[in-house]
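Morning F.,

Quick status update on the modeling queue. The single chain you submitted on Monday has been processed. Sequence for confirmation:
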Amino acid sequence: MKSIFDFKLVGQRVCLYFPRKEAYVFLGDLYSDKLLMRYLVNLYKKEYSKQEIEQLWERHLKENRAQKGLKLAVYHKEDEKIIGFCGFGMLDLKEKKANAGVVLKKEYWGNGYALECMFLCWRYAFEKLDIKEISANTLLSNKRACRFFDLMGMRKVQVTTEIVAGHKYENVVLYSFDCNDWKKNKSKLMAMLKKRV
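Structure tokens below.
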């Protein structure tokens, strides 16, 4: 029997797919980018060795196979290359909750790719997996991500402190978006997406 994660989500400009082994090299390049790393709350090192990336990749694969996460490579159809990763961490199919995220290479920022990725993931989560609530978090200093989550219609829940892998992060903004928000905002998000593609 195939896993529910063995599939593709296809958009106008991107294709999201279950990551394969060869993509871990890109993960290392992406997660070693100092600008990106300072904003990722759940990844505390500024640089990773090849061995550490392999271990992180194996963890992602294990989470996907156990249906506790949905980590997808973002493939740019026109450029024919992986430009990032997106999906859900802390996926709980019993509680019907997930934590969303997207990380893209800098040269693809500001062009609606994150919107397209999140729309595809959210549609799948709410309409296929029957997820009831999606959360997201970022640092308050990450103004671009805060504006993005606001644009997506997410509600700010609180600003808090988190300890991740022994590192303390202050001013972590927690966002929430539930199935009722999806019903109310889906058409608006589709219209925003059409303007971008």
